[in-house]
Amino acid sequence: QVGLVESGGGSVQAGGSLRLSCVASGRVFGTYAMTWFRTAPGKDREFVSTISGSGGTTRYADAVKGRFTISKDNARKTVYLQMNNLKLEDTGVYYCATGTTQLASAPQHYAFWGRGTQVSVSS
To answer: Does the structure show a pLDDT above 90 at 83?
Structure first.
């Protein structure tokens, strides 16, 4: 069984920064990819960023490239999402997901999900 718990969300003004964390329980950390998705009000869940089990490969959605950085600490079983220069359109609930070795951007590839953490960006 895998458990994922996100934290670090909050309210911030546009241009500000937040760092999200996702702590995993279970034996998958270091094997599976760890991925961040987000859901904005009235929109479908969308891919944000993913990192391979080893941490050596990362991918980003075009909307966040150059502003967000994903990283992981295998010893702490934690994946991070550093979000800089936040924009209004970054508002949403951010979810951590895992369950595949592929660096997949589609939600259906992921079997395990956290409950999410809210990010609100205001002008």
So the answer is: yes
